[in-house]
């Protein structure tokens, strides 16, 4: 396993920690304890499988406000754009495992899952998932990690819909998302994106927001931030990553990752045990 490093936010009680098992690409572990920080809209481009371990969280998901109480499961689809913050004056704590969609058949045998509720599960189910996730953090051998991931997928399966992607996850705007991903380092216009969708600019703007519960600019920034985190995990320097993903400079990248994932580029790379890189902020 990679070494740990705790991220410190402006709030004195806010903490976040990332870890990636060295022998399992496409898997990331994350735990956080948040009182003051408010995460901007972001996605993980992976299944988010986790549990709320303390407090009460509030987040915006699919156009609505939701609460995530202690001893409940937190389940996210790869394309889900969401925010996050504590819902009261106390700390909100949660542990997550992010599993890239292509890995699901290996661990679960299912081609694709979709979650229709971001918060679900009984306290007993949440305790079982929490124990499994805690064991994953402590596992040292690749076989142990694989075995525990299989166990986690089995625990989560009852909460998933196994029919594959719903129709709305593809459709008219899937080419727009693909275009965005292919042009992250470029300036994009409303006219460009509307042309990809085959709609007039403002019809596209209204329809896109109605389907994704976010503006094209918000989705673009979420995609840029996720890709930046992925490139940082591959060992690219923050300056290289900023240029490759369309951020105006390294400071812009730092602000985006901190607001969406609670981590700076340099701290994220330290958590993953990467060495010999030019230091970012």
Description of the structure:
With 281 residues, the protein is α+β, with helices and mostly antiparallel strands. It has two domains: 7-159, Regulatory protein AraC (Jelly Rolls); 170-271, Homeodomain-like (Arc Repressor Mutant, subunit A). The chain is 39% helix and 21% strand. The chain has ten helices and eleven strands. The chain has helices at residues 104-108, 123-138, 142-156, 174-182, 190-197, 201-212, 216-233, 238-244, 250-261, 265-271, and strands at residues 7-8, 15-19, 27-34, 39-42, 47-54, 56-61, 64-69, 72-76, 82-86, 92-99, 119-120. The strands form two sheets. Strands 1-2-3-10-5-8-11 form a seven-stranded antiparallel β-sheet. The protein has a four-stranded antiparallel β-sheet with strand order 4-9-6-7. A hairpin with a 2-residue loop joins β6 (56-61) and β7. α2 runs antiparallel to α3 (142-156) and α5 packs across α6 (201-212).
Short description:
Helices cover 39% and strands 21% of the residues. By secondary structure, it is of the alpha+beta class. It folds into 2 domains: 7-159, Jelly Rolls; 170-271, Arc Repressor Mutant, subunit A (Orthogonal Bundle).
* Spatial ordering of strands, largest sheet: 1-2-3-10-5-8-11
Count of DSSP strands:
11
Helix content: 25-40%
Q: Any idea what the shape is?
A: globular
Fourth-tier CATH superfamily name of the largest domain: Regulatory protein AraC
Give me the CATH fold name of the largest domain: Jelly Rolls
The number of domains: 2
How far do the termini sit from each other?
24 Å
Largest sheet: 7 strands, antiparallel
Beta-strand share of residues: 15-25%
Kindly name the structural category. alpha+beta
């Amino acid at each position: 396993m990679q070494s740990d490093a705790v991220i410190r936010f402006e709030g004195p009680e806010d903490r976040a920690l990332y870890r990636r098992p060295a022998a399992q690409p496409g898997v990331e572990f994350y735990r956080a304890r948040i009182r003051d920080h408010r995460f901007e809209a972001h996605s993980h481009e992976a299944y988010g499988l986790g549990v709320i371990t303390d407090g009460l969280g509030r987040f915006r998901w699919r156009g609505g406000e939701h609460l995530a109480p202690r001893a409940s499961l937190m389940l996210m689809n790869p394309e889900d754009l969401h925010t996050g913050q504590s819902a009261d004056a106390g700390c909100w704590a949660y542990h997550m495992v992010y599993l890239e969609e292509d890995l699901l058949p290996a661990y679960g045998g299912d081609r694709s899952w979709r979650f229709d509720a971001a918060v679900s599960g009984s306290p007993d189910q949440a305790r079982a998932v929490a124990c499994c996730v805690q064991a994953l953090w402590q596992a040292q051998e690749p076989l142990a990690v694989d075995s525990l991931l299989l166990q986690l997928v089995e625990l989560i399966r009852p909460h998933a819909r196994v029919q594959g992607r719903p129709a709305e996850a593809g459709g008219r705007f899937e080419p727009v998302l693909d275009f965005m991903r292919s042009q992250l380092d470029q300036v994009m216009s409303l006219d460009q994106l509307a042309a990809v969708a085959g709609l007039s600019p403002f019809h596209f703007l209204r329809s896109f927001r109605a389907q994704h519960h976010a503006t094209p600019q918000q989705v673009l920034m979420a995609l840029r931030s996720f890709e930046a985190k992925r490139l940082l995990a591959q060992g690219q320097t923050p300056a290289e990553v900023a240029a490759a993903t369309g951020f105006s400079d390294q400071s812009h990248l730092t602000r985006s990752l901190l607001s969406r994932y609670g981590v700076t580029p340099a701290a994220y790379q330290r958590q993953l045990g990467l060495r010999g890189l030019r230091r970012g902020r």
